[in-house]
User: What shape does this take?
Amino acid sequence: MIFHVLTIFPEFFAVPFAHGVVKRAQDAGLIEIRIHNLRDWTSDRHRTVDDRPFGGGEGMVLKPKPIFLAVESIWPERGPGRKVLLLSAQGRLFDQAMANRLVGEAELLLLCGRYEGVDERVAEHLADEEISIGNYVLSGGELAAAVVIDAVARLLPGVLGNDSSAAFESFQDTGHGEGLLDCPHWTRPADFRGWKAPEVLLNGNHEEIRQFRKRAAREKTARLRPDLLR
Ligand code: 9D3
Assistant: This one.
């Protein structure tokens, strides 16, 4: 799968993709990440990508032309299997179901917004989808693009060592069923500074362990994510 990223901060992506699962997926040839500098599609001396908003107001807006030219030169043909995603604070909320759907595409092109926003004609006439990663204010789309690529790439067959099943998991698919958070985990030492791992996990009774984990998952979900308990 190929991920394209269009950004005014190409250097931003050196670090998030140089580690862990995404790095190994690239090394194994399972994914390719191509970073494109939006300023390469400007033609003025100052390589201008932004301008003042019509109607006045704070901040600057990304101009449509460099973004359209970039997408049209990265993909002279669009067609099925290629989706343009605009990362913006005004987008639809990204979730596991969206990641599961996007992993079915051959190529994604992620457009990173900056400043106060992006000319609306990009959302209306260029992007297939407009996506936000959460209800909080970021400074731009770059972190969001890295999040989307990580969430999608790890679903690809072979990336996690999983054969193909990961894409069918939901965020809350813990094996306990019923859409709970994952159960809490402990490892050695069994006593850390006087805080003890639950005895039941040490006793080797697998049916008891299964029941304990299910109850612990329910309790943690009720406490931290009551919204998941319909
Ligand atoms: C006056 C309101 N503006 C800023 C307080 C709105 C605004 C403009 C530009 C808010 C955020 C941004 C930049 N954010 C993104 O480009 C972005 C984003 C986000 O802010 N939150 C969650 N997901 C995303 S994806 C891209």
Summary: The pocket of 9D3 is lined by residues 87-89, 113, 116-117, 132-134, 136-141, 144 (CB under 6 Å).
